[in-house]
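Issue 218. Parser rejects a valid record. Input:
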Amino acid sequence: MPPYNPSAFPPFAVTVDLVVLTVRRQGLWALVVRRGEPPYQGRWALPGGFVREDEDLAEAAARELGEETGLCAQAVDAGATDHREGGGAHLEQLATYGDPGRDPRMRVVSVAHLALAPDLPTPRPGGDASGARWAPVDELLDRDGHGRDGEQAVPLAFDHATILSDGVERARSKIEYSSLATAFCPPEFTVGELRRVYEAVWDVVLDPRNFHRKVTGTPGFLVPTGGTTTRQGGRPAQLFRAGGATLLNPPMLRPEV
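Output the parser choked on:
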C-alpha cells in the first residue's frame, strides 16, 4: 500500500441528528432542544451530536436518544420494517445530509435517524442544550407561517426543518405498507388508539368502522390479547398487540387530501 497522507484531504466532522416523533393530543409531535451555544444559540433544533471516534453511527444515535429521552433504542436497518423484536423505541437510519454550508463551524456531515415511540413525558435538556420540549410538527415546519402564539415562527437551526420534513414523510409512507404505526402505541392498545395514530401521522380523519375492518382483517397485523380496557371512556374496548407481520397485505393506503 503506497504512503497515505491524511492531511491531503480537508478534515470534516460527522454528527447524528434525531427526528424523534410521538403522538400526543391527537397530533404528531417532535422533540426539539434549544441550543445553548453558538451557532444558532437560543434557536430550536433537533437533538443530536457529534459521533465519537470510538463508536459507530448506530451507537451514536442510540446514545443520543438515551441522553435526550431516556429511551433504549431498538435499531433496525434503513429498509427494515420490524421494530418489535428486542423491545425499545423504533430507531432507523433516515438519510445523510452533507451540504458544505450546512454548519458554519466547519464541514459537518450529518447522518439523520428516525425514532418513534408512544407518548413520552416532558423531556429534560442534556449536554449543551438549554431547553427541551415536544412541539407539534406543523408548528415546527411553519406550514402556516406562524407559531402557536400567533407570532412569526422562527425556523429550526441548521437544515433541521428539511431533516424533520423528511422524517415525517418517511413515517407517513411506511405506515402505509408496514406495521410501523404500532411503534407509536403501548404494548397493548385498542383499534381506536391505533386509528388515532394513523390520523395524527397522516393528518386526516378516518372512518372508524372502515378502519376497524381493515386492520383486523389484515393477516398478522394485530393479535387479540384477550383483555379489554375503558381508558378511552365508554364501553370496554378489546385490546390488541402487534402481530408478526412486518409488511401489510393489503397496505393501508393514505387517503388523498
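Fixed in the parser; the record now loads. The CA atoms of residues 36 and 130 lie 5 Å apart.
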